[in-house]
Each structure stands twice: as C-alpha cells, then as structure tokens.
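Materials and Methods. Structural model of Two-component system chemotaxis response regulator CheY. The 122-residue sequence of Two-component system chemotaxis response regulator CheY from Azonexus fungiphilus was retrieved and submitted for structure prediction as follows.
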Amino acid sequence: MAKTILIVDDSASLRQVVSIALKGAGYDVIEACDGVDGLKKLDGRKIHLIISDVNMPNMDGITFVKESKQLPAYKFTPVIMLTTEAGDAKKQAGQAAGAKAWVVKPFQPAQMLTAVGKLILP
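The predicted structure was written out as tokens:
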C-alpha cells in the first residue's frame, strides 16, 4: 500500500518537482496551493506526511501546520517545512507549530527523500 504525502506550496513548479521525486519513490501525492487549500485536503483520508512551504498567500505554512495539528486525524502526521527561510526564529516557530524537519530550497530531491523516509512511519 503506497503512503500518501500532501504537498502544500504556492509554486506549481515546485509542487511538480517534489511530486515527481515522490512518485518516483513510490509515494502517492496530493497537492494544495496554500494553507487554506491544504486544510481542505485534510478531509479524513490517511495522509502519512505533509510537506509545506512557509511563505504562501491566504495562510502561511506555520499557521497551516498549527491548524492541521488541531485535527485529531492529523495530530501526529509528521510535517517537513520546505522553504527558502533558513533563519532560526522561523525554524523555532515551525518546530513549535509541530514541524519535524526543515529543508531549505533549493534542495536536492535525494535530500528531501531521505528526510521523507525517516519520517514516514511504516
């Protein structure tokens, strides 16, 4: 059974790059264009991991992670923040919200897949 990953990023090209890498590694992928859209996709189906950008319109990634952790079905879903932000303050805000890993763009797909592999539970 393939594991499902939700990608939340306002950049369609970035979602595509991440999606291709994940699908190539055997994952199912759901895409969302911002935090609001991401929350709509959290509709009760099993999602094994969330990859979210930080800076997005409508709802930023940190707020999205906080909101997703309020949903009982996704309280323990691991989150990777994939962002251009490398500052400690943002990282701490991400960790406080519930993010488990922080991958800075530009990233190597292999680096991201390693982080994904460590966080996806069997």
